[in-house]
Amino acid sequence: MTRLGSLIEELDVEVGENAGLDTSVTGFAIDNRKVAPGTVFGAFQGLRVNGEDYIPDAVKAGAVAVVASPQAKVEGAIHIAHPNPRRLFALLAARYFAPFPDVTVAVTGTNGKTSTVELARQLWRMLGHKSASIGTLGVTTSVDQVSTGLTTPDIVTFLSNMSGLKREGITHAAFEASSHGLAQYRTEGLPVMAGAFTNLSRDHLDYHGDMDSYFEAKMRLFDEIVASDGAAVVWADDLWSDKVIERVTKRGLRLLSVGVKGQALRLANRTPTQLGQTMDVEADGKAYKVNLPLIGAYQAANALTAAGLVIATGGDTGKVLELLSRVQPVRGRLERAVISRAGAPVYVDYAHTPDGLRAAMEALRPHTRGRLIALFGAGGDRDAGKRPQMGKVATELADHVIVTDDNPRSEDPSAIRAAVMAGAPGAEEIGGRRAAIAAAIAQAGSDDIVLLAGKGHEQGQIIGDRVLPFDDVAVARECAG
Ligand SMILES: CC(=O)N[C@H]1[C@@H](OP(=O)(O)OP(=O)(O)OC[C@H]2O[C@@H](n3ccc(=O)[nH]c3=O)[C@H](O)[C@@H]2O)O[C@H](CO)[C@@H](O)[C@@H]1O[C@H](C)C(=O)N[C@@H](C)C(=O)N[C@H](CCC(=O)O)C(=O)O
Ligand SMILES: Nc1ncnc2c1ncn2[C@@H]1O[C@H](COP(=O)(O)OP(=O)(O)OP(=O)(O)O)[C@@H](O)[C@H]1O
Ligand SMILES: N[C@H](CCC[C@H](N)C(=O)O)C(=O)O
Ligand SMILES: [Mg+2]
């Protein structure tokens, strides 16, 4: 049985007099609909509603304590007051859900988080550890994959998943720290031994406002979440890398920089091969030849960042680099779905930002003898400013562009397409993703390559409130058959 007092011990919190610290706690919730007798309820100001409005309902449902701002009105339960209630809630919940896997690392960045945590999981597994990842693909172990619906789940789901992994015997876990997740304290409280930065480019400005605030949200990982004796693995070749390195150094974290400008793992040379690429990597004064069975500069970057995390947490450099030759592709990241009847390979990729589209097209270009045909859309209820920029990048780098739909959500699909088209002169507009994929495949000749971007592993098209089953890989196979 866990007593509230033992969770609060040593934390800098205010509770009222006669606070009943002897009360036993049976769980944590941030949604009043999930409160049961004995729950600690976290009441937070959100974007849509104020969680404090649900305090009476939470108390009625049996909440014994409420973590909320000092101004909140709490009656009938203990008010644990704090100016940053989300953070305090995370700390308390982590004490309740502990223990966690021994080695935990986190990855942030606009693109590459899913790929990096997945590759780190695979490398650990090949080194003989029981490993897991948590992110866009869900909670993944070598035997299971369970979706959580978000990249970075809410704090209660996150900590209970981490705790469940520990009970299953998982010793090593890598998780994605999205900027929303970082800004909302959805992944903290547990010791994080290393953090990685992949890159920063335009996305989610609807939420963060501008690039500097978006950057600051990401930096919480290094400023506050990674343990003070932990490590930072920084992809060194991004425009923002130097700023990240500055922050990491200021905090006193052990720095492993990775990439062409990297020092811990220096990418000296990279040569595409038919099915992958070879990399010349220098580390600790030694030269290593790495055969990576994945194509594209971006996958090389993510593979090296993942290797950096595994090395930072105790992996042997030579062994880890050698194991990169045995990694499996990541679902929906330059996944070859099918070869069309005409002989054109059709790739599915999760590129959903201007930079992601550029990375995916640059990855495929060296493998394209004829034309590169790129199809994509932009998500509704998401950063609208990225739409024309995605159109622009695509028309610059592809030989033919098809603009279609990708999760319009509450927006009018044709208005989203129009915004993309505004930056994409000469592109073809086809509403309805299935019809667009069929058209892309039908016009590809044997020397051409088709890129279906934006949905990757996703299993649905979100239209209004409905999620209609949709899988780019499956649809590509149907259209090619
Ligand atoms: C914009 C955003 O991130 N919103 C998330 C956030 O909402 P919020 O804190 O603003 O919450 P709110 O809905 O205003 O509610 C405020 C509080 O009242 C509580 N509440 C609310 C209603 C009620 O009846 N009872 C109740 O107790 C809520 O639990 C919450 O604590 O917290 C909610 C609870 O955890 C999330 O479900 C919600 O995700 C929404 C659905 C979402 O679409 N999020 C996306 C944008 C997102 O987070 N994406 C990122 C990044 C994607 C990437 O990888 O690029 C991700 O990590 O997935
Ligand atoms: N290192 C990288 N540099 C540039 N682009 C990348 C990089 N890694 C991945 N991408 C592009 O971004 C897409 C998404 O990759 P991934 O799912 O690994 O990123 P993510 O950060 O997890 O995305 P999300 O924020 O949606 O969870 C890829 O399909 C690819 O097009
Ligand atoms: N996790 C990201 C990527 C979504 C990819 C794309 N399919 C879209 O719906 O915009 C988001 O929620 O912004
Ligand atoms: Mg992801």
UniProtKB/TrEMBL annotation:
Catalytic activity line of the entry: UDP-N-acetyl-alpha-D-muramoyl-L-alanyl-D-glutamate + meso-2,6-diaminopimelate + ATP = UDP-N-acetyl-alpha-D-muramoyl-L-alanyl-gamma-D-glutamyl-meso-2,6-diaminopimelate + ADP + phosphate + H(+)
GO biological process: cell division; cell wall organization; peptidoglycan biosynthetic process; regulation of cell shape
Keywords: ATP-binding, Cell cycle, Cell division, Cell shape, Cell wall biogenesis/degradation, Cytoplasm, Ligase, Magnesium, Nucleotide-binding, Peptidoglycan synthesis
All copies of domain Mur ligase N-terminal catalytic, residue ranges: 25-78
Pathway in which the depicted protein is active: Cell wall biogenesis; peptidoglycan biosynthesis
Residue numbers binding ATP: G109, T110, N111, G112, K113, T114, S115
Chain sites annotated for binding UDP-N-acetyl-alpha-D-muramoyl-L-alanyl-D-glutamate: T151, T152, S178, Q184, R186
HAMAP family: MurE
PTMs per UniProt: Carboxylation is probably crucial for Mg(2+) binding and, consequently, for the gamma-phosphate positioning of ATP.
Chain ranges of the Mur ligase central domain: 107-309
Record carries keyword Cytoplasm: yes
Organism, as annotated: Sphingobium wenxiniae (strain DSM 21828 / CGMCC 1.7748 / JZ-1)
Classification of source organism: Bacteria, Pseudomonadati, Pseudomonadota, Alphaproteobacteria, Sphingomonadales
List of residues binding meso-2,6-diaminopimelate: R382, D406, N407, P408, R409, G454, E458
Modification type N6-carboxylysine: residues: K218
Recorded GO CC terms: cytoplasm
Record-given protein name: UDP-N-acetylmuramoyl-L-alanyl-D-glutamate--2,6-diaminopimelate ligase
PANTHER family: MUR LIGASE FAMILY MEMBER, UDP-N-ACETYLMURAMOYL-L-ALANYL-D-GLUTAMATE--2,6-DIAMINOPIMELATE LIGASE MURE HOMOLOG, CHLOROPLASTIC
EC top class, as a word: ligase
